[in-house]
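Running low. Got one?
___
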Amino acid sequence: MAALGWLTPRRRSATARSVLAGEAAAEAARKSSQEDADTTPPATKEPQESAFPVPGDDRAAAFFDLDNTVMQGAALFHFGRGLYKRNFFETRDLARFAWQQAWFRLAGVEDPEHMQEARDSALSIVKGHRVAELQSIGEEIYDEYMADRIWPGTRALAQAHLDAGQKVWLVTAAPVEIAQVIARRLGLTGALGTVAESVGGVYTGRLVGEPLHGPAKAEALRALAVAERLDLSRCAAYSDSHNDIPMLSLVGHPYAINPDAKLRRHARDMDWRLRDYRTGRKAAKVGIPAAAGVGAVAGGTAAAIALHRRRR
């Protein structure tokens, strides 16, 4: 896939593969959201009384990280569980997914080596399968493993932006197909995710660029902002991970949600807003819509799901 040439000037730290991954994610997200808009009637907007988000500001949008920000745990792990149930791979592979999930849940940080292993495993598993097949399975997996893991508080934040008439996008390293399912189920505008290469509707086992992670997320926001005529200084972004500091730093309204230690320190140094739904702690700075507090629940840092159950 050729670069789209949408991007505004950027920091030189972004690699060519990051740019390619970001542009591919933005293109896939816009295509998917346009298809949804063509088939879904417009939602009725409720009055929004808070000063932020600003009602009717069509040059503002909100961007939400997925893992541990919108949803407890890692989407790729839950997707792997669903594929295992459908005999896409064997028990030893699921055990590896479970260990990676345990690390993520207990340590509260993303281990690059674990994430790379998970992505490599997922690519090898889906190679040769049709994109339409994985999209259909993604719908089932959402109902089975993800629907009851959505953080109500973060969901309320997203709804506040929607009620203000703004577009809301997921931005995640998870496969774009599963990210789009989650976004659609939550009533969001769309999703930017890692794009796996496909030819003739069949996965090749390769990525377009690199995973949508770290600097690549920032590139995806730049590309989408240009295409959608957004003013990033009026946009908001939400994440739990210090890896998303490049994305958070692009927008005028950055939020640290369920932050890891590095992001918490950075957010405090930068006077960013904080919210932790794992413990019920109050926001460190006023300005988060009150609706988010209503949905806050204690999540805890539970261990990974036990693997003693045999496949039926």
